[in-house]
Amino acid sequence: MKLILKMLQKAVIVVTVLSLTIGTSVTAYAADVDSVLNDAEWTSYVERSIEIDKTPGLSVVAVKGSDVGFKTWGYANIKDKTPMTEDTLVHIGSCSKAFTALAVLLLQEEGKLSIDDSVSEYIPWWHVTYKGKDADIKIWHLLNHCSGIPNAATMAEYPIRTDADEEEIAHIAENLELKYAPGETFEYCNLGYCILAYLVETVSGISFDEYVVKEIMQPIGMTHSGYDLPVAQGYLYFWNTLKPYNDPHAKGIEGEGYAVTTASDMALWLKAQMGKLDLPDKLANAIAASHEIIEAHYPSDGIRSDSSDSSYFNGWYISDDGIIEHGGWNPTYKAQVIIDPAKETAVFTDCNSTANTQWYAMRSCFGKLTGHNEYTEIVKCDMLIIDIIASVISIAVSLIILFVLIMLLTQKKRLMKKTSSPKKEKALLCARLVLLIPLLSLSVSLPYILGAVMGYPGFGYQKVWAWGGQSAVVMGLFLDVLFILLIITSIKRYIIKRRNS
Predict the structure, then answer these.
(1) Which residues on neighbouring strands pair with residue 71, listed in sequence order?
(2) Are 269 and 257 in contact, with CB atoms under 8 Å apart?
(3) Cα–Cα distance between 100 and 251 in angstroms, integer?
(4) Statement: residue 16 has pLDDT above 60
(5) Are 15 and 7 in contact (CB under 8 A)?
């Protein structure tokens, strides 16, 4: 009997030690919020991205279970030395789409619509076609980006005027010829969410922003959030420096990318998504529905999103392992949201420029919180690279322009000293024009080419300028001037030589 008792005691000790060891390893594997946000290695990594991309200000909020933590860097306004804090108001770009989709699903909870209904049931003037025939777009087609509405072409139609409302923006789709049949294929479409915002107005009887604030933000406790609020100063890259810039967006595109909030309020939004808040039943049910994958609502061609391992539903990319996320990009803001409901872990990041720092901060913070301590290699953001290239070319071209102007002013005097045949001069003029006219056409088209590179064919000077490609527009104008001057000098040379022959 004593032998048996001793064996049992030893077994208890072994089990206890193993339990403590396992408990310790689990704690080390899945870090808590404070340890991540105060981690020297992680902080150094984020600050390296801030330095590389010249990020003016960055805010981070992390949620794990009941724990919430914030960390901020830099300035909400560089000139005034206003620091970025968890209470700084910021744009969140296309992360706004989750609010718009939730408003639609909330109306469904209220019995005022069904996402299986046709858009035309609620918008009387609605009429679109596909291959010349009437097409029927359902509400879920807009929610899941498979309506067939072309994204780039319709965004190019956005007015720059700030007073253009939801109805005016929605009318861009009136009598539109669709790119695909409704429900056929996934194509991310910003206009679709502008139309959904107008749909919310039409069905609810109040303005879109009023409905979202009253029915979603206030019940969650997001008392500082809304639309058309004064935000931190946004910045864009211009000649390798940060230039303050206020994005002149139309009011009517709020539904696709212009919600305003703070890191503090976003902590509550993250908790709401994970079911960690006491909310009205209809709102809690709508949030749950926004995370639901409905196989009947998959595009018929099987393309679920622009990510190979995720589906797009109701303003969220939902991965195969249940993680929901979305990024946002406005001309002077970038934001990122990622949530793992199963692990009760979420991160939100935002910066007031088009830097990629928000993405690196989000991905690395979320990784450490969920036990994946990996760091992606940091590279300069595309807009900064474009700016640097455009700036260097602009300086070089400006010097060439100065040289050409000097040569033009002294051209007559220099040509009087040289003789050549009219036939040779005519051939030389033709050769120069054959080269210079296409080059001029190419330089005039540069903003449109850049718009296509950015993913928005049809963007011209005004839209590329508004979206931060100002250095590239200046470069294009310098090239235009250079090629025009070269054409003028070529023609003038021919006239002078002909008169002297």
Answers:
(1) 60
(2) no
(3) 14
(4) no
(5) no
Classify domain 84-335 by CATH number: 3.40.710.10
Half-sphere exposure of 141 (CA within 13 A, CB side): 22
- Give the angle 108-109-115 at the CA atoms, nearest 5°: 20
CA distances from residue 321 to 261, 324, 339, 340, 372 in whole angstroms, order as listed: 28, 9, 11, 9, 15
* 160's tokens: 């720059």
Q: What is the rounded distance in angstroms from the CA atom of residue 231 to the CA atom of residue 457? A: 29
Are the beta carbons of 50 and 73 closer than 8 angstroms?
Answer: yes
Q: Which amino acid is at 318?
A: I
Quote the pLDDT of residue 66. Answer: 92
Distance CA 425, CA 41 (A): 68
pLDDT of residue 317 exceeding 50, the answer is yes
Count of CA atoms in the C-beta half-sphere (13 A) of 245 = 24
DSSP, collapsed to helix, strand or coil, labels residue 345 as strand
Q: What is the pLDDT of residues 51-110, one digit of tens each?
A: 999 999 999 999 999 999 999 999 999 999 999 999 999 999 999 999 999 999 999 999
Q: Which of 35, 94, 37 is nearest to 60 (CA)?
A: 37
For the chain, the structural domain boundaries read 1-30, 84-335, 383-500
Report CA 357 to chain centroid distance, whole Å: 13
Give me the amino acid identity at 368.
K
Q: What is the pLDDT of residue 501?
A: 65
Q: Tell me how far apart the alpha carbons of residues 110 and 69 are, in angstroms, rounded to a whole number.
A: 35
* Structure-token pair, residue 480: 């235009």
Rg (CA), the chain: 29
- Look up residue 384 and give its two tokens: 């900064």
Residue type for position 440 = L
> How many angstroms separate the CA atoms of 10 and 6, rounded?
6
* Whole-model pTM over 0.70: yes
Pick 277 or 22 by higher pLDDT. Answer: 277
